[in-house]
Each structure stands twice: as C-alpha cells, then as structure tokens.
Amino acid sequence: MSDFLYTGLYTTLSSVLSSVPVTLIIPLQVIILLITILITLHLLFPPTLLVESLHIYPIKSAAGIQVDSLTLTSKGVKNDRQYVVLQRPKDDPNGWEVVTQRENPRLALLQPKLHEDDSVSVTYSSDPFSFDLTFNPSSEKFKVELFRCFITCSIVPGSSSFLLRHFPSKSYSIAYVHVGRDSTLDSKWSDCYLPSESSGAVDGSQLLLTFTRSLSTLNSSISSPAVKMSNFRPNVVVSSSGFLPSLMKWEDDHLRSLSLSLVKIRVNKLCHRCVLSTVIQDVGEFDRRLEPLKSLRKIRYLKDGRFGDRPGNSPGFGVNCSLRGEGGVVKVGDGGRGEWGWTKRCNWRNVGGN
Q1: Are 148 and 186 a contacting pair, CB within 8 Å?
Q2: How far is CA 256 from each of CA 4, 137, 307, 321, 328, rounded to the nearest angstrom?
Q3: What is the pTM of this model?
Q4: TM spans, by residue (predicted)?
Q5: Residue 2 counted as domain residue
C-alpha cells in the first residue's frame, strides 16, 4: 500500500514538474524537499503537552490555591470563583458591584482554604484568625453585573465584619455565587461560546490556560526581576514539546483544542490582559514598573484581527478555554495532545465546534 502511495505521489510530482518552466524546477524541488523535511520532523516529534501546575481561586480576586488535581464540570472548574467580594456602588446605595484587584490589589492577601467537604474558610495575610464562609441557601438572592453578564449571589453572614477588620476604609462583603456567568450572553464575545455555556464568577471562559514557553518569551523582554506566572492567575499551566511547538514563540496564538488525560478542552480566544496582571500576588501591590502589561503592550497587540482578536482589545497572554464533551479530573503530571492552527479562532457556533 505504501509503495502504491509513493508511486502515485512520485507520478503526480513528475507530472507537475514536467509542466513547469526549467528555471523554476530547482526552486520547486527545494520547496518540496523543505516541506517533506518539515512533515517528517512533525511526524517524528509530535507535539505533546504536560501539566506543570494547577490552581483554584475559591474567592474571585483573592489568593489562589495550588492543587494536585482539579475537576472540570459543565460549569467550569469545581470550586473556582465560587465566591466574590462585593461593595455598594456610589451611585446606587441599594445595589451591589463586584470588587477585584483592579480596584484594590490588597485583595490578593485574602487567603482562602478549601476543605475536604468543599467548604471554604479565609484568613488575611499573616493574621491567624480564620473566617468560615457559610451561607443560608434560603437567604435573599440578587443579581450583580459582571462583564456584560449577570451572576446570582447571596451575602455570606458575618463577612462584612471580617473584611472591615482588614479593610477599615471599605464596606466590603463576601457573597456566594448561586448562578454563574452565562458567557453566551456576552455582547462582545458571545460567538466564542456554545449555547448554555455557564461558569462561576469568571471574567470570560470556564478555564484559563497558560504556557511556560510564553512566560519565558515574555520575560526575555522584561528587565529583572522576572514576572511570575501567578501574575496571570491561570487554572492550568502546561509545557509543550515536539517540533511544531518549538517553532512558536507564542503558543497562545495557535492552540485550537487539547486533551489532558481524558478531558477534552476547547480554546475559545486569547485572554486579554489588564492592570490586574501587574499585581504582585505575594504582596498585594501593583508593580511599579507596570510589568508585565507594559511589555505586553509592546509585543502582544494583534492589530490585524487574527486569532479572534478585535479592535480595542488589550494584549493577550494565555487562552480562555471551555470543557469539550464530558468532564473529568486533570492532575499535575498528566500528558496531553493539542490541535494547532494558524487561522482565526472564535465563531464556534458558526463552524459547528463542540
């Protein structure tokens, strides 16, 4: 069978070359040889992925928890962004709005702890006092806007007093998220998602994935000290190997979908970065150099509309992803495969993605 294929390929190429002017035959032969070498290298060294670290953020914009495994469900990462910090808006004393590190970087010093029964407690910085986040399922529920969508919440009793202890000039409360964000209602990015694609209190997709190679590429443009991966608050950090990924400075731009262990994941779009990425998570302060955002603005604007980018977006680092098919458990050390491309992402519903 292989002899037949090679004979057919040889016959086809011979036919093509026979109709080409003599002056172009050698350049075409060189091109064909290079393509053959590239395909051979790709087959000999197929692209693979390796899970380097996993992270869950029980409270939105609080510190993350590094874990050995995480569970992906139809609603996203289990226990991720299940709580939010709220405050009363100045123009609406009866309403609520979400507070993040964009407004107050010291939220990074809130240290959640996830217990075996999925309950959450929280401390602040080095203060040993721990507050349990318990809520009454029958308590009043209300909607809060979050990036052009709404989440349904209820206030955790006693959380206002706990936060006042550490943020004396603020009137913060912690709320439990009963109904997460429906990304298909996002007026800007709805075409990147499939119907009924919900999650917790995330800014966009169910899952944020970053690449170790991309961080190294970024840090090569930043003077010391280097930026940590924690600045980007990913759920999954992966490294890659193989011939094809080695050609890419920014794998973020080319990954279309992936499988980690038995879990299939769809890549929706780039994660567009804002001032939150400049928060030094260990100390709860903005980086005075405005890194990595300053460097990202120089090297990561995709102004030609590739890869689902759109006018007015901030620079991208990492990718927003969603579960594809059945859920499952992803563990540190799990291997995986990716599907790569050089075409525009998004519009999944228009191309039948699943």
Answers
A1: yes
A2: 34, 39, 10, 10, 20
A3: 0.83
A4: 20-45
A5: no
